[in-house]
Design a protein that fits this description.
The protein is mainly α. The chain contains 15 helices and no strands. Helix 10 packs antiparallel against helix 14.
Length: 268
């Protein structure tokens, strides 16, 4: 049986196990969902500011649409592999994964993907309903942009997962890679559109941020949903996003291969 066939055969089982795990740890899962609700806080803050006067082209309605779309993208593209990987490396339990025939990245990916239905079931109807009810005027009517949204969401999830796997793999070289991830997370908050629309950044910073990977983790799918980019921007954005996906995937796999050569399990 070829490698691809083995992966195709094992994937449904991995997804079922991941979904069962999400249900078994539903309390922690709900806490994690609540921890991603920063866009709602920023929605209240920015609508209060816009009540006095619009900020750029964003009035109260535009901010409501923006941050509800941001919440939806965040819920659909989240991952936690960096913490799992770092924990297993430090505890020495990673060795158990290495005994299995599947690449650990595939197992982690299936585990993270399997949790998406729980997020959809628990919170997405509320966020999507609120967006349609309160901020539907801000949604784009361009069907081509809507057709590209699933592709951009998949690219954003893959980028998030590959970056986390890459940083988590650094734990094979250093005692803890989480400090690196905290630095990445700080930049993500500012440069991904998580706490404000990127076009409200100073002009020089926006000119830089539009090409950095952080935008394609969150802001780009939101911009498509709200029609903040034209069709030319759509084509360019998708190309850049998937180039980043390829880069982080290859970098993560190469770093993983190098790290395993010096890995020595301890503890556990």
């Amino acid at each position: 049986m070829s490698r691809v066939a083995e992966i195709r055969r094992a994937t449904p089982t991995l997804l079922r196990v991941g979904f069962a795990s999400a249900i078994a740890y539903r309390s922690e899962f709900l806490v994690w969902i609540l921890a991603t609700n920063m866009p709602l806080v920023m929605l209240l803050l920015w609508t209060a500011v816009a009540a006095e006067a619009p900020v750029g082209r964003f009035g109260e309605t535009e901010f409501i649409g923006y941050f509800l779309a941001t919440l939806i993208v965040r819920l659909l593209t989240g991952s936690w592999v960096v913490w799992e990987l770092n924990f297993e490396i430090r505890q020495g339990t990673l060795g158990m994964r290495l005994l299995k025939p599947m690449h650990p990245f595939l197992v982690f990916a299936a585990d993270n993907l399997a949790a998406i239905p729980m997020r959809v079931l628990v919170s997405l109807p509320i966020a999507a309903g609120a967006l349609f009810w309160v901020g539907r005027e801000t949604l784009t009517g361009d069907l081509l942009l809507w057709a590209a949204v699933p592709v951009a969401l998949l690219g954003a999830w893959l980028m998030t997962f590959c970056v986390m796997a890459l940083i988590g793999t650094l734990g094979l070289f250093w005692e803890s890679s989480l400090s690196i991830f905290e630095l990445w997370l700080g930049l993500f908050f500012v440069l991904s559109g998580y706490i404000l629309p990127l076009e409200l950044l100073p002009e020089w910073l926006w000119a830089v941020a539009r090409w950095l990977p952080f935008r394609f983790l969150l802001s780009f799918p939101v911009e498509l949903m709200l029609g903040l980019v034209d069709r030319e921007g759509l084509a360019v954005g998708l190309c850049v996003q998937w180039l980043y996906v390829a880069f982080f995937l290859v970098a993560g796999l190469r770093l993983w291969a190098a790290g395993l050569k010096r890995y020595a399990a301890y503890g556990g």
